[in-house]
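Reopening this ticket.

The earlier resolution said the output was attached, but the attachment link was broken on my side. Pasting everything inline this time so it's all in one place.
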Amino acid sequence: MSNEGQTMIGRARYGAAAIATAALAVAGIATAIHFRYDAGHWPGPSPAGPSVGSSLWSP
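Inline output:
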């Protein structure tokens, strides 16, 4: 195989790894946002602390 062929395979591998890493990052951020804003539905105080309009922290 020529150097050009090996380079293209290497680029494809790095591209796939970059896409997979970005997808995991987006999924992680979406999960964090989901649990941050859905914390009012869980029993007990939110680990993020009191938020505006939270019924758990109002007297």
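Reporter confirms the inline version is readable. Residues 1-59 form one domain. The longest helix spans residues 3-37.
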